[in-house]
Amino acid sequence: MIDSFIRAGFETSFCEYLFIDNSSETKAEAFRGYNAFLNCAQGEFVILCHQDILLKFDRIEQLETCVQELDRLAPSWGVLGNAGGVKIGEIAICITDSEGKHDSGGFPAQVQTLDENFILVKRSANLCVSHDLKGFHLYGTDLCLIATILGFTSWVVNFNLFHKSKGNPDENFRRLCHDFTKKYKRINLNAGALQTTCTELYVSGSGWIIKHSIFKRMYQLRKKCATPDQREKLEGDTKKLLGVRYYLHWMVYKLLRPIENFRRSTARRSAAATVKRHRDTA
């Protein structure tokens, strides 16, 4: 990983590489470790990343271009990455893994959460992650929420790298999801439903909003089912979960979907036009 960073322009003459060696034993989990990095890092920007990424595509110059674009478009940005959740059912992503390149387009895209494989933090924002959570998942989501509280925004940018792993939502992940939602429900941020790259988190909001978000998610999953039997089973599970309100959620979804599609399309065209205008005048 370090060799690939150096080849991509992150030279040791002006970059420091900080790490905690957990290979033989867990000396620090992610929340504690990343707080240590954010406290002691000397650079203007701090990259928090997995050890199983390789900079096989974009170089430091592309990342600098992305930072400069955000400085112009959204000066209050605090963190950026290459994958994250925009809202329930929608993610922004620019990454390559064993299945090929995943590119949602429309960059830069403002997001609720960021995937932990690669996150760049503006050190002047003085951010940290929670001290009352622990583990190796959701610290990117936590960092974005804390940034939001402090008045900063989070973004996915056009920076493509290779990620060897696709993640591991194991029992520890599920336990941390429970602890995470419990914490943010307790402090009542009114953050509503959060979309990450691999799950949804419901940290506040009305029962109607939560159930409608679940309906939309299950509706999208049903469209991806390979067989009619799978679709029928998932539809049955949704009806069992929502009861007679299933049909009300279905009607609301059908009415709102064209509006959401139009809004999403307009936002992407507007973002692309703004970026092009700034590039033309740069």
Written overview of the protein:
It is a single chain. With 282 residues, the chain is of the alpha+beta class. The protein has 8 helices and 12 strands. A hairpin with a 4-residue loop joins strand 11 and strand 12. Helix 6 (207-223) runs antiparallel to helix 7 (228-242) and helix 6 crosses helix 8. The longest helix is centred in the last third of the chain and has 36 residues, at 246-281. The protein is globular, with a radius of gyration of 20 Å. The model has no long low-confidence stretch (mean pLDDT 82).
Q: What is the strand and helix layout of this fold?
A:
Blueprint: H1 2-7, H2 30-40, E1 45-49, E2 53-54, H3 60-73, E3 77-81, E4 83-87, E5 90-97, E6 100-103, E7 109-111, E8 118-122, H4 139-149, E9 153-156, E10 162-163, H5 171-187, E11 193-195, E12 200-202, H6 207-223, H7 228-242, H8 246-281
Protein traits:
single chain; 282 residues; alpha+beta; Spore Coat Polysaccharide Biosynthesis Protein SpsA, Chain A; 2 domains; 5-stranded mixed sheet; 3-stranded antiparallel sheet; 12 strands; 45% helix; 17% strand; globular
Instruction: Point out poorly predicted stretches.
Output: none
Tally of separate domains = 2
Q: What helical percentage do the residues reach?
A: 40-55%
Query: Which fold name is given in CATH as the topology of the largest domain?
Result: Spore Coat Polysaccharide Biosynthesis Protein SpsA, Chain A
Rounded Rg: 20 Å
Globally, the shape reads globular
Gap between N and C termini: 33 Å
What is the mean pLDDT?
A: 82
Q: Can you say what the CATH homologous superfamily of the largest domain is? A: Spore Coat Polysaccharide Biosynthesis Protein SpsA, Chain A
Number of DSSP helices?
Answer: 8
**How many extended strands?**
12
Strand order of the largest sheet: 1-8-3-9-7
Tell me the structural class: alpha+beta
Report the CATH C-level class of the largest domain.
Answer: Alpha Beta
Order of helix and strand elements from N to C terminus: HHEEHEEEEEEHEEHEEHHH
CATH architecture of the largest domain: Alpha-Beta Complex
